[in-house]
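Bench notes, bay 3.
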Amino acid sequence: MNTTSIKVEGMTCGHCKSAVEGALGKLSGVGKAEVDLSANEVSVEYEEDKVTVEEMNEAIEDQGYDVVK
């Protein structure tokens, strides 16, 4: 498992946390996603042969949040 941190703008509450973690959790290859609202980032454990960072970014953006690249 690899781990990456993705900076995300627009997350402010528990609903935001659930939406992002849920979207990432549905991706094949993502083992764990944990949002830190105070740091505006999500830490993701994933298998790089099954999912890309770009796919994770898209899943977050599909929920209405902005990934800081």
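Next record in the batch:
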Amino acid sequence: MGSAAIGVLVVEDEEFVRAGLRAILDAEAGITVVGEAGDGAQVLGLVRRLRPDVLLMGMPAVGPVAATRHVLASDHPPRVLILTTFGNDSRVYDALRAGAAGFLLKRARPVEIVRAVRTVAAGESLLFPAAVRDLVATRGRCGGDGLRGAGLTEREAAILRLMARGLSNAEMAAELMLGLETVQTHVGDVLVKVGARDRPQAVLTAYESGFIDPHRPV
């Protein structure tokens, strides 16, 4: 994106929430709301026309899961950030599985909303460790071979656990005393080995397989 502003498409069926999000984001330097909609059925057409960098999407009538899948299959897919009232909403889990970069609670403070948009626009994921553990635990889908067949090295296993803690690449580099490029390489290798397209999918796979116990802090 270079120095260009981060383009955000806001899709939210509650008009006052949508207006508030636009006001918060448009007030920030380097962020521009390129469009908005109150109906999830408009998402794909708007993404194709406006080509936003980030899709900030509430729980539209067509459902965030279907919308996420359709958007990410488009020619110029944005990063998808789900906006939810409840962190334990099962649709959040399914949207992450479908490729959403993260989720944010509607009651988040303006500074948190701005930070979330910047985070996903930069290619990072936005995961709240406690909320993700709750999501996985409520689905009752934990257990398996613990990714033994994935062939993760000791370092890669450590990287995956740090992902589950919600650490960014820079934070992982500091934690492990490694270079940022080295961490980025390890992250890419982890995604390939666990068969995930992105960090949220890798973290969910780690929980589902039993590699990480959702009933214990990471």
